[in-house]
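Appendix B, record 7
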Amino acid sequence: MDDGFLMEVCVDSVESAVNAERGGAGRIELCAGLVEGGTTPSMGLLQVVKQCVRVPVFVMIRPRGGDFLYSDREVEVMKADIRLAKLHGADGLVFGALTEDGRIDTELCTALLAVCRPLPVTFHRAFDMVHDPLVALETLISLGFERVLTSGCDSSALEGLSLIKRLTEQAKGRIVVVPGGGITERNLQRILEGSTASEFHCSARSVRDSGMKFRNPNVAMGASFSAPEYSIKVADVAKVRTLNAIAKNIL
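Structure tokens (predicted):
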């Protein structure tokens, strides 16, 4: 992005991807299941999104919600999904894996990176679950990750701002530290100025009502924590534009 900051918007639908691009996103992170923090999207979704947008599309590789300690069979799923995502036009890939004691799983990451190449790879917010983030950052750099997405190991990027700044300073341009987690138009300026980051990650979503006229209030398709059945969260063009404008005005 010529204006200094690159905005990545995480999306889980074609509508959100189109809205993110219209609003000025410089890159899209394509997921399913944002209610679980993002899981691997369907290849059909990737295929149609790639037909509808021109900005780079980075694909989440996460076979399930929950922790980032993966079984051998889950690893096989991740490798297969990486190959398919590349086949269907992914511009980059996003994954993370940890050992049981909260360190970067270097052996697994090395194997997955080999399948991802030559595409760029982001280590996602599994980073926020590590035992020692400063050591973990050096590990990611040595492995060759291009980016790391983080809320500063806290509940939001604003809460974790001091660590994000420390990580950015430690990185010295060897890896891009991307703040993400709870970024809104109300806190973006403070996060960008406080972290000295050059990119940021957000969802910029709003809720729109379902088009369903007949509704059964007694049934929900997901678990009790899931989103309401008849409301749909989508990336909001106006919110994306506002965040983009804030980032530009900081320069």
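Remarks on this record: Residues 75 and 108 are 8 Å apart (CA to CA). The chain has eight helices and ten strands.
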